[in-house]
Amino acid sequence: MYLYFSHPREGAAAAAQTLAGFAAVTPPRGATMVATKKSKKSTDNINNKLQLVMKSGKYTLGYKTVLRTLRNSKSKLVIIANNCPPLRKSEIEYYAMLAKVTVHHFHGNNVDLGTACGKYFRVCCLSIIDPGDSDIIKTTPGDQ
């Protein structure tokens, strides 16, 4: 914000009066940094576990194959991106509830989920059939 005044005394008084209207609001000490750091760490944690599943486990990507694995009771965990359409999301959650499978809502959009899987395309949802060397099923909180 730049303030231009012609006279020095006039400028100081006007600037003080203008800036008095703005109240400095500061968050509690360390609250913002801790929350951001914690969510970043949990995001990195699930990204690393997803990469390990992609290397050593069995999985399916995409809406139709996720529904197929849920109907056949092969799925152990379903991960859904946060910008998945509501109707699609509710249908996946319904089939997962019937199959007693945990659903995890990924904190990124479908581009972020695709990148976390090591793919160059968007991934709306994925189903983990066999986690391989990863412990993603035990440590991922279910959001059902």
Automatic annotation (TrEMBL):
Read off the Pfam families from this record: Ribosomal_L7Ae (PF01248)
A molecular function annotated in GO for this UniProt entry is: RNA binding
The organism encoding this protein is Setaria italica
Q: Does the keyword Protein biosynthesis apply?
A: no
Q: Does the keyword Ribonucleoprotein apply?
A: yes
What is the protein's name according to its record?
Ribosomal protein eL8/eL30/eS12/Gadd45 domain-containing protein
What InterPro entries does the entry give?
Ribosomal_eL30 (IPR000231), Ribosomal_eL30-like (IPR039109), Ribosomal_eL30-like_sf (IPR029064), Ribosomal_eL30_CS (IPR022991), Ribosomal_eL8/eL30/eS12/Gad45 (IPR004038)
Family statement drawn from the similarity comment of this UniProt entry: Belongs to the eukaryotic ribosomal protein eL30 family.
Q: Which GO terms describe its cellular component?
A: cytosolic large ribosomal subunit
Which key words tag this protein in UniProt?
Ribonucleoprotein, Ribosomal protein
Task: Name the lineage.
Answer: Eukaryota, Viridiplantae, Streptophyta, Embryophyta, Tracheophyta
Domain (Ribosomal protein eL8/eL30/eS12/Gadd45): residue spans on this chain: 44-137
Xref: NCBIfam families = PRK01018.1
